[in-house]
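Journal club side-thread
Mid-discussion, someone asked how the predicted structure for our own chain would compare to the paper's figures. Pasting it here so we can look after the session.
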Amino acid sequence: MLLVYGEEDEVIKHSIVTEEMFVTWSCADKTRIVVPGAGHGWKITEQVWVDVLSWLNKHAGQPVHKTPKK
């Protein structure tokens, strides 16, 4: 699971809602990218794109959940 949001987002209270969801989700492989100084609807910086694409490349083609063997 990849979670990306702006540190200064005033529309969604990430420090409360998003962090609680992130901790609660049972996904073993989860990553959080918090964009410093960015708000809601922020323009994605080059470094954020690098981080997101890196995460996608790492996880591409992998199953989301392991299926039980029959």
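Post-session note: The radius of gyration is 14 Å.
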